[in-house]
């Protein structure tokens, strides 16, 4: 079973499964078939001091999201997939197009995608917002937060497929090129000229990237490597990662180790390990997420806490069904790489956060 097929087990006919399997149920050319799916999150986050992730000292309700996926099969070999999202903020809801692409299936070994395609990097980029496929409301900040590692999609072309090896091995590959524009949630933050934090201008052009997943003879165990490089203004932006995932019975284990370089003097390392165990409808989870950023050469000296991130989290979830879950988690954060003061004062180096959320899919 491929990695994508494994992670979407329990989600049913979502677009991730349909694309990963090659969609065995094809519409007749004279009778196009379209399917509509969706997934959403509603969360509350409260911290004791800084603003961090989905929480702030007053308690934040402004991190909800609803995504709608339309998957169509106009022809036997052709699939078209779109994902439009409504993201909640302090100013209300904003519409965003996460991806929209066409796929031509030559065979299971060779498929061509074109448009705004989901970025194949690591474990979570292709299922970024599907909360029913992970044990925590939020993803690890070190790789999937405002760190300049990944985007939800890229504009360009990709080749993807799955090759069978001997002794129950299989290999899933992706090769792609184009450009990416980091969204608000993934763009690296830097200090602005007038103080405060602002998004770094991160548009990576002339991008080339690849991912290879090895599906091992151990059922549910996948190991892989991914990376990309491209031009950002006058510098080179490159990222690489190793990842491992085990989904077996009541257990889920995921870990990733990644490195990103944005120019000669801006880089970061990130790592997390996430373990969850189901007990009937209940699930317990633990995660340790860490990241360290470099100090820019032309910037004045700054405390190392501004470049350090450590988040140790515990979670307790109740699954009413595979498509609906209530989650509660506590987070102990050390460092201010992603935890910032709610006002103009200096941030404190320690942050505690509690998150309560509901996530669903159909």
Unreliable runs: 1-31
Order of helices and strands: HHEEEEEHEEEEEEEEEEEEE
Shape: globular
How helix-rich are the residues, as a percent range?
under 10%
Oligomer type: single chain
The number of strands is 18
The CATH homologous superfamily is named Porin
Average pLDDT confidence is 87
CATH architecture: Beta Barrel
Query: How big is the Rg?
Result: 20 Å
Q: Beta-strand level of the residues, as a percent range?
A: over 45%
Intertermini distance: 22 Å
Give the biggest sheet.
Answer: 16 strands, antiparallel, barrel
Structure described in brief:
The protein has 362 residues and is mainly β. 4% of the residues lie in helices and 57% in strands.
Detailed description of the structure:
The chain is built from 3 helices and 18 strands. It is globular and about 60 Å long. The protein has helices at residues 3-7, 15-20, 141-144, and strands spanning 33-47, 65-73, 78-89, 92-107, 110-118, 153-164, 170-181, 189-191, 197-199, 203-215, 221-232, 235-248, 251-263, 266-279, 282-293, 308-321, 324-334, 350-361. It has 362 residues and is mostly beta strands. The chain has one domain: Porin (Beta Barrel). The relative contact order is 0.16. It has a 16-stranded antiparallel β-barrel. Strands 8-9 form a two-stranded antiparallel sheet.
């Amino acid at each position: 079973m491929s990695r994508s097929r494994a992670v979407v087990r329990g989600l049913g006919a979502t677009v991730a499964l349909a694309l990963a399997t090659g969609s065995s149920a094809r519409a007749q050319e004279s009778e196009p078939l379209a399917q509509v799916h969706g997934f959403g999150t509603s969360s509350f986050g409260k911290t004791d001091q800084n603003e961090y992730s989905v929480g702030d000292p007053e308690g934040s309700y402004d991190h909800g999201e609803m995504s709608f996926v339309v998957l169509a099969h106009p022809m036997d070999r052709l699939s078209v997939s779109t994902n439009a999202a409504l993201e909640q903020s302090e100013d209300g809801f904003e519409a965003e197009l996460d991806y929209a692409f066409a796929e031509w299936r030559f065979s299971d070994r060779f498929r061509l995608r074109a448009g705004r395609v989901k970025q194949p990097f690591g474990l979570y980029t292709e299922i970024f917002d599907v909360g029913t496929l992970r044990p925590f409301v939020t993803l690890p900040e070190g790789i999937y937060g405002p760190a300049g590692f990944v985007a939800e999609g890229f504009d360009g072309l990709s080749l993807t497929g799955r090759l069978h090896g001997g002794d129950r091995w299989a290999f899933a590959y992706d090769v792609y090129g184009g450009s990416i524009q980091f969204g608000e949630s993934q763009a690296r933050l830097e200090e602005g000229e007038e103080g405060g934090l602002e998004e770094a201008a991160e548009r990576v052009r002339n991008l080339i990237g690849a991912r290879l997943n090895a599906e091992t003879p151990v059922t549910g165990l996948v190991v892989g490597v991914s990376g990309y490089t491209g031009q950002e203004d006058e510098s080179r932006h490159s990222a690489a990662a190793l990842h491992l995932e085990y989904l077996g019975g009541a257990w889920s284990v995921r870990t990733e180790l990644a490195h990103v370089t944005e120019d000669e003097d801006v880089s970061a390392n990130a790592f997390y390990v996430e373990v969850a165990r189901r007990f009937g409808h209940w699930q317990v989870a633990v995660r340790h997420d860490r990241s360290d950023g470099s100090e820019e050469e032309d910037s004045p000296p700054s405390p190392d806490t501004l470049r350090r991130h450590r988040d140790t989290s515990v979670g307790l979830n109740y699954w009413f069904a595979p498509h609906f879950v209530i989650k509660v988690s506590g987070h102990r954060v050390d460092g201010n790489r992603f935890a910032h003061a709610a006002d103009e004062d200096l941030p404190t180096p320690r942050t505690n956060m509690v998150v309560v959320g509901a996530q669903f899919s159909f």
